[in-house]
Amino acid sequence: MPIPFDRELGEHNLMGLLLSDDEYKEHNSKGVIFPSYNRPAIYDKSIKTDATLGVRAQAKAIHKAKIEDWKTFDCARREVRNFIIATVEDTWIRELQDPITGYSDQAPRAILDHLWASCSGLSHLDTLALRDSMRTMHVDVQGIPEYINALEDAQKRSKRADPENAITDHFLMVVATAAMLGSQRLPRADWKWQDLPKAAKTWAKWKKLYKEEEALERVRVLATDGQDQFGAAHRASGNYVPPVLPFVSPVPAPPTPAPPASTVVPTGSTQGEQLDEYFDALAAAATTDQSILAELVAANARLTTANEILTKTNESLVAKLAAKSGGRHTPAGPKKLCPHCKKMVVHAPNDCFELDKNKDKRPRGWVTGL
Hints:
Low-confidence stretches: 228-246, 261-268
Strand content: under 5%
Number of domains: 4
Shape: elongated
Distance between the termini: 108 Å
Largest sheet: 2 strands, antiparallel
Structural class: mainly alpha
Order of helices and strands: HHHHHHHHHHEE
Radius of gyration: 47 Å
């Protein structure tokens, strides 16, 4: 309908490619049927040779508009036909197929008329299945607007299947209310809905109320970054409001482990007594932490002392090993070329046994040059 068409009269639109004559007349502002279009000639032969310039210009403009309308009409008809053929299973339109030209000579409206006549469509049994599926539609949608659209689409399908037993707005309201109460998606909206008088509980009111509450809830989530900043205060004062749960069916929570014996509060005590016992438990925990910290400090001191003893023992062993090797100092490190023995060694040049000053340090059986 929004595609520019019928530039001359402005009476028709391209919905005539799909609708029957009666349906088109009902939706057409002029109440006329969609005409048949044929390809116009390249030039308007009805223009008289002795026509004035004004008449000739007007006739050319009208003919040009007809050519443009034909191009639009032909393109839309071809693409709509291709869309139907690609979307509908070939089994349902095989009877219209020509062995040579295929479906090229079939108009879109003729294909739809064939489908309406040959396909059974939905039955009253489908309506029952539709009602059952509506009870869980809230699980697969993201928000209230999407949920409302899904319910109303199902209602439209039920009207096509069984107009006499179609799904009513009251049934939509009941199903949606049960789903929201069961999922606890918007508890404040549930409270407001339950407080309404019976006469005010309509499907239109349900949609308005829950849409507004979801919008407020989104603002709250953005403001708190998904966290309840006043949760502790609410719980302490007894005015705690349960957080909003995800928009899904409730799932049983895992069992909560039992608290330590030191933090269990006996039943029947007053709120002040409970707080006193909580504070006593916190003080005991702080004392325990101080004792553990003192033990850690003492253990660290013992470890430091043991490390010093080990270091001194290591130095003594190194000195004894040096004495057993003849007194020559051999520091650890990479080997270097000694200028005296001409070898890659680790000893210092002054400690080389080739020097006469170190002859007393030479081991028994030492031979020069080896």
